[in-house]
Design goal:
268 residues; alpha/beta; Rossmann fold
Length: 268
């Protein structure tokens, strides 16, 4: 992955923005022509891209509902992107009306749009921060004024770690967050992968990576063994690390490649 996008690149509507691209995949309206063009190139390579995005969003909803059902009412969503339907605060508050949620992103475009979309929602904050600097996130006064890190909290790293290069130590990033969490806290994670894909999709995934080369962040697909390293120190909730469509679906579904691995873990 490239370094964090510069402010000028992140604000340039001619540069595809990964958060706005994801918004477009989900059918949102907070995107520009450059974002839509990049996503259409991805869809030409793999028509199921919008389905992958929707399945990832559905996993997020199921996982948040599960964690909230375990009594957790604090959520820290790192690399949150743009709020959309079934956002973390909406799902969590269906279980805990007083749930507190801090969204974190390093993109000024996302921050501006998200604050406007969230408005004055109580006990919800959108805070600047970079996943590659977890100590800065944990030390943020905005976050500490909203969340009690000394009590159980759920950290979400959903569709974000594949934008962190190996050289930027993604396992170390997760470990820093994990070590700061109180026992009884949870991690919700999903990660892009080509594992389990038919050979033709694996071949096209190389071209898909090149589409992201022109965007504000680049992508690294990883295998299950690589992703499992990020989960060290957590007891995985059944069914463990699986493809997103297979993580506690409302009813059994036949497996079809879905582009993401996912897991929910508890810190004991």
């Amino acid at each position: 992955m490239a370094d964090a996008p510069s402010k000028s690149a992140a604000l340039d509507p001619k540069v595809p923005n990964v958060a706005r691209m994801y918004d477009y995949m989900l059918g949102g309206k907070e995107n520009y022509a450059s974002d839509r063009t990049a996503v259409e190139k991805l869809i030409e390579l793999e028509p199921a891209v919008p389905r992958f995005a929707r399945l990832n969003r559905e996993f997020l909803g199921r996982a948040v509902r599960f964690v909230a059902g375990q009594g957790v009412s604090q959520f820290l969503d790192v690399g949150a992107g743009l709020p959309t339907q079934e956002s973390v605060h909406e799902v969590a508050r269906a279980v805990h009306p007083d749930a507190r949620i801090a969204y974190v992103d390093n993109d000024p475009v996302v921050l501006t749009h998200s604050r406007a979309l969230l408005g004055a929602a109580p006990n919800v904050a959108f805070v600047p921060g970079d996943i590659r600097e977890p100590a800065g996130i944990l030390g943020s006064s905005e976050i500490s004024s909203l969340l009690d890190i000394g009590s159980p909290i759920c950290v979400l790293l959903v569709a974000i770690l594949h934008f962190v290069r190996d050289a930027e130590d993604p396992a170390g990033v997760v470990a820093t967050l994990r070590d700061a969490l109180a026992p009884g806290s949870y991690l919700i994670m999903s990660h892009g992968t080509a594992h389990g894909a038919p050979p033709d999709i694996v071949a096209r995934s190389r071209d898909a990576r090149r589409v992201y080369d022109t965007a504000t962040a680049q992508i690294t697909y990883r295998e299950p063994a690589e992703v499992s390293r990020f989960l060290d120190g957590f007891s995985l909730v059944e069914p463990g690390l699986v493809h997103i469509s297979q993580w506690r679906p409302p009813e059994p579904v036949a497996y079809e490649f879905d582009g993401f691995l996912a897991a929910v873990g508890r810190k004991d």
